[in-house]
Amino acid sequence: MNEPVLPRAEDLRRLVTVRMPFGKYQGHLVADLPGAYLAWFARKGFPPGELGRLLALMLEIDHNGLKRLLDPLRER
Question: Model's pTM, two decimal places?
Fold first, then answer.
């Protein structure tokens, strides 16, 4: 049986610092992307590399109602 992949602390920090580099929400923080947009990526395929990994992680966080957990990590 496969073990679940747990996010690293650095991944969580990246969600509140990395901005979407393209598309409808270009310039928005990954942590601020709407759930419907993240779900669209899940259906169509996440981009390769770090961005795709962060989008998939954000989808899980959003889907499980855990977005508030990122608030302390946001830069003030």
Answer: 0.88
